[in-house]
Inverse folding.
């Protein structure tokens, strides 16, 4: 799959959309304090964090850790300058 965002792209984040729906792309602050953009899937046992780029591994956050993932908001637009 071609990555949805490329290095240097701009992303518009709607902070009102911070309730996770599976398959959507969100900006988040992870448990290590890093801010990232990931496609998020919700499971009864936790969260799956996916990148569209195959070079980044899929990550699982069990419920205990998932509660420490801060959803900033949903990515609603992205683009780049030339």
């Amino acid at each position: 799959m071609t990555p949805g965002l490329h290095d240097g792209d701009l992303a518009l984040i709607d902070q009102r959309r911070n309730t996770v729906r599976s398959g959507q792309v969100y900006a988040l602050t992870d448990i290590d304090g890093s801010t990232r953009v990931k496609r998020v899937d919700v499971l009864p046992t936790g969260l799956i964090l996916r990148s569209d780029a195959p070079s980044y591994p899929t990550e699982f956050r069990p419920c205990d850790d998932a509660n420490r993932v801060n959803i900033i908001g949903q990515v609603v637009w992205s683009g780049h300058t030339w």
In short: The mean pLDDT is 90.
